[in-house]
Structure formats: structure tokens, C-alpha cells
Amino acid sequence: MELSEHPLFRELSTLNLPPTDYVVAGSGPLLAHGLRREISDLDIVARGEAWRIALKVADPVATPSGHGRMVLLFDGGIEVFDRWLPGSREPDEMIEGAEWVQGFPFCPLREVLAWKERLGRQKDQEDVKLIRNHLRHPGV
Prior knowledge:
140 residues; Beta Polymerase, domain 2; 6 helices; 7 strands; 19% strand
């Protein structure tokens, strides 16, 4: 799948965020690696100019985790965070550690696995299985 053709990535592209100032987190990396065909939204961790651009579009609100702030864009289709989940690396580290897929920066699957395991949410259990299988058998 071409990410640039996915509706959420088309919306993301219209924001013109500097790619060195954000990283796609949440379930976006599963889509990028072909482990999921659909996602309901894009979670973006931003800093610097990318965060300033998001703030020009909408006002920040508290995050569901209570950790940091977020800006909801495109009717919630894109959520831009100034930090990720409690216990995660700092935004600068996350962004600098991104892996690039089709021109977009993503959190590595090992990090996604660590959050989803730590959170222990029922909705993440299938993702945990998919990521573990992919990491054990890459390219299959």
C-alpha cells in the first residue's frame, strides 16, 4: 500500500509538518509495515515547528492519559501530541529514533510493542500478537 494514498496520510501531508520534528506513533507503524490494513486515526508526537504548526490549527487539550497535551485535527483523524504515553521516551528521543517508511517517520515496532504490552488494553492484544509474529518472522 502506498501510504501517500491513504486518506489519513494525505491529510497529514497537507499540514506540511517538517518530517524531522514529528514521528507517527500509535497504530500507524502497524499500517506502515502492512500488519494492519486500516487504522482509525494517526497519532503524531511532535516538537518544535511541527508542534507550532498544529497549535496554529487548533487549541491544545488534555490527553486521555493525562500526560501532556494534544491537538485534534481533521475531526480527530489526526491527534498531535507534545509527548507520548507515560513511561515512553521523551519526544526528542522518539523523533530522532524514527524509522522511515515511504518518506514518513515512524516509531519502531519494538517500541510500539513495549507500549501496547505495558498498557495491557484489550484493544491492543491483537496488535501485540501481530507485532511479535512480525519481529520473529520478518518478511513473512
